[in-house]
Write a structure and sequence with these properties.
Keywords: Membrane, Transmembrane, Transmembrane helix. This protein is mainly α and 293 residues long. The chain has 10 helices and 2 strands, in the order αβααααβααααα.
C-alpha cells in the first residue's frame, strides 16, 4: 500500500475494512479530568452561592430568586462572581456531557477480531503482503497487535455465533483451498491507484454470509418443530418421549443462540413455548386430553 491516499481509496471502496482505534484509555482519562474539574467548580460555586446568600446585600441576596439580577450588569466584580462561575460550569458541562456520550457510543461499537486485524495489516503492508505498515516514525505502531482490543470496525455490527463461525471458515478454509482460484484481489480501478499492483486482499461481502444465515434461520424455524413432532410420533415409551422432548428443546435453544442474538428472557420464552407445543402434541397423539382436568 502506497501511503494514506491509497489506503483511504481502498477503504472507501470497501467500507467493511475500515477500522480505527478508540483510544479508550485517553478518552476515559479525559472524562476523569473533566469530572475532577467539575467537582472543584461545583464546590467553588456552592461557596459563592452561600456568600451571596449571607452577604446582607439587598441585590446579591436575591440571586436565588432573580436570575436577571445575577446576570447583571454589576458595578463591582464580586457581584458577578456567581454568574461567571455558572457560565463556566455550563461550558464545562457541555464538554463533559458530550465526552461521556461519545465514549458510551464508542463502547457500544463492535470489536475487531484477530483475523480482521491481520487482513488490514496485509492491506497496508509495504511491500505488498509483508504485514509491515507503510507508516513511518511512531505511526508505524498504529495497527500493532497489542492494540487489538482498542480497535473497532466503523461499518461493522455485532455478529451472532454462527455468522462468526462461517466468516472464519470462509477466510481460513474456503479461501485457502477453493476461493483463491476464483476470487480476484481488489482491482486498482476499483480501489485507487496502486501503480499497477493490486493490494493483497480478497473481499467477501458480509451481506452474503448474513443472507445465508438468515435463510438457514428461516428454514430451521419451521423445520425444528415439525421434525421434532414427527420424531416423537414414532416413540411409544412415555419416558423416552419425555427425554426426547428435553433433547429437542435443548437443541432448539442451542440453535436459537447460534443463529440469533436473543436476550435471556426471549430464549427462555421461546424454549418454553417450544416444549409446550411438543407436550401438547404428545398428549393429542395419545388420545388424551390436551389440557389437564
Amino acid at each position: 500500500m502506497e501511503g494514506y491516499t491509497a489506503l483511504s481509496a481502498a477503504v472507501g471502496a470497501y467500507p467493511d475494512t475500515a477500522m480505527v482505534r478508540r483510544f479508550l484509555p485517553l478518552n476515559v482519562r479525559n472524562i476523569l479530568c473533566m469530572q475532577a474539574e467539575l467537582i472543584r467548580l461545583e464546590g467553588d460555586l456552592q461557596m459563592t452561592i452561600e456568600d451571596d446568600r449571607n452577604s446582607g446585600d439587598a441585590k446579591r441576596s436575591q440571586y436565588e430568586y432573580n436570575v436577571g439580577l445575577m446576570m447583571g450588569p454589576h458595578e463591582h466584580h464580586v457581584d458577578g462572581l456567581q454568574w461567571q462561575k455558572t457560565l463556566a460550569a455550563r461550558r464545562l458541562l457541555k464538554d463533559y456531557n458530550e465526552a461521556v456520550l461519545q465514549l458510551s457510543s464508542l463502547l457500544q461499537r463492535p470489536p475487531v477480531s484477530e483475523d480482521d486485524l491481520t487482513c488490514f495489516r496485509e492491506l497496508i503492508g509495504k511491500p505488498y503482503g509483508s504485514r509491515r505498515p507503510f507508516m513511518q516514525s511512531i505511526e508505524y505502531f498504529a495497527y500493532d497487535r497489542k492494540h487489538l482490543k482498542d480497535f473497532t470496525l466503523l461499518a461493522g455490527h455485532t455478529k451472532d455465533v454462527l455468522t462468526r463461525w462461517i466468516d472464519k471458515f470462509v477466510r481460513n478454509v474456503f479461501h485457502r483451498y477453493v476461493g483463491y482460484r476464483t476470487r480476484d484481489p481488489i482491482s486498482a480501478v476499483e480501489a485507487g491507484n496502486y501503480h499497477g499492483k493490486p493490494p493483497p486482499v480478497v473481499y467477501y461481502d458480509d451481506r452474503r454470509i448474513a443472507g445465508a444465515v438468515d435463510a438457514a434461520a428461516t428454514i430451521l424455524a419451521s423445520a425444528l418443530p415439525t421434525l421434532s413432532a414427527f420424531g416423537l410420533y414414532f416413540i411409544q415409551s412415555p419416558l423416552a418421549r419425555m427425554f426426547a422432548i428435553v433433547a429437542c428443546t435443548l437443541l432448539f435453544s442451542t440453535v436459537l443462540t447460534l443463529i440469533a442474538k436473543p436476550r435471556r428472557v426471549e430464549t427462555f420464552g421461546a424454549s418454553s413455548a417450544f416444549a409446550a407445543v411438543l407436550v401438547v402434541f404428545v398428549q393429542s397423539s395419545n388420545g388424551g386430553p390436551v389440557c389437564p382436568g
